[in-house]
Structures are given as structure tokens and as C-alpha cells.
Amino acid sequence: MSQIILNGIALADLLAEFRAIVKDEVESLSTNPPAKTGQKFLNAHEAADYLGLSVQTIYQRITAIPHLKRFGRLYFEQDKLEAFLRDAKV
């Protein structure tokens, strides 16, 4: 069993300080949520719904739509699909 040796500080004071630190960190997280780190990947069906197209149209126009192919499956990054829609020329 480990042993904690405290010199000059009462256990109650140490716990109170620890609680204050944890409280400040929790409040900080609630006011400033962490940044989004993950990229949202969609499959062909989700991408079709997102773009308002049929799945068949997705496959027919695959050369024009930004995508990734891994292990024989298609993946679409939601951010790149948004950029694809924004950059569309009429």
C-alpha cells in the first residue's frame, strides 16, 4: 500500500485545494468545449442523403465527387462534400 507524507499541510486543506482545481477545470470545459478533432466520414448511402441524390447517382458521378476508397468501400468526408457543393459552378 502506498503512503502519502504531508509536511505542513492538513489533509482537509489539501482536499479543499484539489476540489477547487477540479471545479475550475470542469467550469472551463463547460464554457469552452473542446475543439472537434475527428472528421465525419459518410458511406455512400449517407452521402447520397446529405447531397440529396440517389445512391445510383453517387456511383455514376463518383469521378466528380471527392471520396476515399479503402478495402473496397467508399467513404466521403462531410467537410469535403460541403466544399464540393460550395465550389459547384453553374
Q: What is the terminal-to-terminal distance? A: 72 Å
Rg estimate, integer Å: 26 Å
Strand order of the largest sheet: 1-3-2
H/E topology pattern: HEHHEEH
List low-pLDDT spans. none
- % residues in beta strands: 5-15%
Shape: elongated
Mean pLDDT: 84
Helix content: 40-55%
Total helix count? 4
Structural category: mainly alpha
Q: Biggest β-sheet: count, sense, barrel?
A: 3 strands, antiparallel
List how many beta strands DSSP finds. 3
Account of the 3D structure:
The relative contact order is 0.12. The model has no long low-confidence stretch (mean pLDDT 84). The chain has a domain at 41-86. The protein is mainly alpha-helical and 90 residues long. The protein contains four helices and three strands; from the N terminus they run αβααββα. Helix content is 49%, strand content 11%.
Task: Note the main attributes of this structure.
mainly alpha; three-stranded antiparallel β-sheet; 4 helices; 11% strand
Brief sketch in words of this structure:
The protein is 49% helix and 11% strand.
